[in-house]
Each structure stands twice: as structure tokens, then as C-alpha cells.
Specification:
This protein has 160 residues and is of the alpha+beta class. Helix content is 24%, strand content 16%. A two-stranded antiparallel ribbon has the order 1-2. A two-stranded antiparallel sheet has the order 3-6. Strand 4 and strand 5 form a beta hairpin. The protein starts with a strand and ends with a strand. It binds protoporphyrin IX containing FE (HEM). The site of protoporphyrin IX containing FE has 11 residues, from helix 4.
């Protein structure tokens, strides 16, 4: 990102590997590894999940289900307008769901509304992609979350 000619780079996963933040993230990822019922079998509808079995869901798989989100890779924000398929809400799990869901969800929504509302406000700055393209943001690798290609540069824009 550039503002007033000064480049401002949003760190990519590759560039923050010497930061304490990464330790915190790694701890979190390790803790987030699949949930296991150690003592009893779990029963869900007609299925029995034997004790000791790791259980988890993939938000990416939920969000990319073409039966729920037709053309899932397309940016179609209007898919959320009007009376949309209720399965979309069921499948929307960026903050996970249930007792271990994200505590910071409301703060995260507030931050996203403020930042995106500022960047995309009426008569706001014109943004131009700077030395990056779609391949720098499209997930192609799995690292608990989806990551773009190995040498991705992240999203960089010039505000004019
Ligand atoms: C867009 C931003 C965010 C996303 C997508 C996100 C996503 C998630 C997800 C998926 C989990 C569940 C992890 C699991 O399954 O164990 C989680 C947990 C958590 N998140 Fe977030 N999060 C975001 C921002 C935040 C913020 C801003 C905070 C705090 C200021 C926060 C605090 C936490 C905490 C404390 C947990 C652990 C909850 C628990 O284990 O009981 N998150 N987050």
C-alpha cells in the first residue's frame, strides 16, 4: 500500500516470522488442533465417532461449497442481498461456531467496518493495485488457513 508516496506494506505471513506475533499464532494454532473426545464415543444422528477421533471443520470447505454458494470463487456480494438461502448463514463460519468460537468476533467486525468503510467511502481515494495481482491473494496452499502461492507479495495498493 502507498500513501503520499510512502510505501506502507501489509505484512505477509512470510515476512513476520521473527515476530512474537508468530509465536502467539503458533501457540494458538497448536491449541486449535482438532478436538478429541478422550473418554466417550460421540453420537451424531446415525453416526458414531469413536473416542480418540480428531474432529474439526474447515471454514474454507464450508465457504466454497458450490451447492450453497454457487460460483463460490466469484466476488458476488449481492448473493447476500434479499432473501438468500438460509444454508448460507449456516455455512458461514469464519469465526467458528459454538463454545470455542472467536471471542473477538464483534471487535473484528467493528474493525472491518471501520477500515473498509474508510477505504471505500463515497468520494474516497482511488485505489490501484501496485505490483500485485489476483495470484497474490487467491489461496492455493493449506496452512490451517488458506495461503496464496509461496512467493506471494500480499495486497498492495496505491491510494490516489
Ligand atoms: C477477522 C478477524 C478474526 C477471525 C477471522 C477470527 C477467527 C477465529 C476463529 C475461527 C476462532 C476459533 C478457533 C478454534 O476453533 O479454536 C477464534 C478464536 C478466538 N479468537 Fe478470533 N478471529 C478474529 C479476530 C479476533 C480478535 C480481534 C480477537 C481479540 C481481540 C480474537 C480473539 C479470539 C480468541 C480469544 C479466541 C479463542 C476462543 C476460545 O478458544 O474459547 N479474534 N478466532
Amino acid at each position: 500500500m502507498h500513501q503520499g508516496g510512502t510505501p506502507v506494506r501489509i505484512s505477509s505471513f512470510n515476512t513476520v516470522d521473527d515476530s512474537n506475533l508468530v509465536d502467539i499464532r503458533i501457540n494458538r494454532v497448536l491449541r486449535r488442533q482438532a478436538r478429541i473426545s478422550p473418554d466417550i464415543d460421540l453420537v451424531y444422528k446415525q453416526w458414531v465417532i469413536p473416542k480418540g477421533t480428531a474432529v474439526g471443520i474447515s471454514a474454507h470447505t464450508m465457504h466454497m461449497d458450490p451447492g450453497v454458494f454457487p460460483e463460490p470463487c466469484k466476488f458476488l456480494p449481492e448473493r447476500w442481498l434479499g432473501s438468500y438461502d438460509p444454508r448460507m448463514s449456516r455455512n458461514f463460519v469464519p469465526f467458528s461456531k459454538g463454545s470455542r468460537a472467536c471471542w473477538g468476533k464483534q471487535l473484528a467486525w467493528s474493525e472491518m467496518f471501520i477500515v473498509l468503510g474508510t477505504l471505500f467511502r463515497p468520494n474516497g481515494s482511488k485505489m490501484t493495485a501496485a505490483d500485485c495481482d489476483e495470484s497474490d491473494v487467491v489461496p492455493t496452499r493449506s496452512c490451517e488457513i488458506g495461503l496464496p502461492k509461496k512467493d506471494y507479495k500480499g495486497l498492495r495498493v496505491t491510494l490516489g
